């Protein structure tokens, strides 16, 4: 009798084990496949963003900007399918970090040296002053702290790329990211058209104008468009100044991560906070140093540059797919006023330094 019970018991365990293994295999298959619908959707939006840049008059806009606009339009017109969510989140989190790390291969320490000591000082001072001013004014206007932080980062460093990098430690809502990207894109685009009219009026030579534009206009593409209109020398110096400014993204994100960790610890009455360390920023720094000492072939660097832009564009497109126009409208006009004030501040502050210091 005991033997019979043992046989039935073993057969029962065997059936349970088989069911468990079947369920486990199915779950693994589902998890492995679940990101693909979202990646396909994000990839389609990314392809459309790059294609749109072939349209006359649109080439001055970064594919990052076009992707988030297309993603938002799709989400608000048709709704993002639930089965695409895993891939959308994967793009927003994993692909974003990989893209930021690879961005380091487009920068070198030598670019900073080419700007000169006075140029670096102007760029750094403008960045810090603008970030602090924007945070302060955001409090005065009653703008949410996280949104103000994103606008401050986007205005003071490098537009949309800085916004999404900063959000890895700020952890704002997707609508905040979209609003901040829209703000820095709007006022950076205005600057792109206005700045070329001003060098002669302000008495700026090609080098001074390039430094001013590189230190204050938000996106790299906007700086290129604004400075090369004033000649090759202004364009090259403006691009180098802007890339030097981009290199300051790493210390800013690390600093904000440290501040966020301290803030979370204080909120938990001294308990250990679980704010993630932005280790990917260290990867960005490592690749920048690697690119500074290793002579990477131009074709390879260009290929990685394209891959970097594709990954960051996918991340912005994914954020658009998570953004509601209704929630954006609920933010009101105060963040827009904050972004306008921040843009005017960095333009005036950096211009004052360029005019007063030998560059």
Automatic annotation (TrEMBL):
Record InterPro entries: UPF0324_pro
Subcellular location: Cell membrane
Signal peptide positions on this chain: none
Keyword annotations from UniProtKB, A to Z: Cell membrane, Membrane, Transmembrane, Transmembrane helix
UniProt cross-references to Pfam families, sorted A to Z: Cons_hypoth698
Topology term for the membrane: Multi-pass membrane protein
Protein's name in the database: Uncharacterized protein family UPF0324
One GO CC annotation: plasma membrane
Membrane-spanning intervals of the chain: 34-52, 58-74, 120-138, 147-165, 177-198, 210-231, 243-261, 273-294, 300-321, 333-357
Similarity annotation: Belongs to the UPF0324 family.
